[in-house]
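Intended use. Records like the one below are meant for learning the mapping from a protein sequence to its folded structure. Do not use them to infer anything beyond what is encoded.
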Amino acid sequence: MSRHQIANKILSLTNFKYLSSKRGIHAVATLLSIDKPWPQIAEKLGRDRKDLMNIVDETARRRNDIVHRADRTQTDPGGEAQEISYSWSKQAVDTIMHICLALDEVVAARMKELQAESTLAVDAI
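Structure written out for the chain above:
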């Protein structure tokens, strides 16, 4: 299997649904040979790892409430719509954008490491 085929396989496995939770982000990073991605993401952002993971999960939960239940909670789908503010929404979206940027930096650094290891291995032959 070529590198291109492997890359396409990984991309197909990392569909949107896998990136909509803290576990999904961890799984995708693991597929990309990144050990313990959340501490690395938190370090890049200067933020608490648990806070970042909670924001991802809370935002995904709220998105699901909005999309699937007209913004009613999963525990009371017939109840009143939940309150939401622009400031909460904006900080959630911005935080997730920053997580994505940090993950991109972590992935880029890991790819450079792997390329360097590959070059050393080829040179040793």
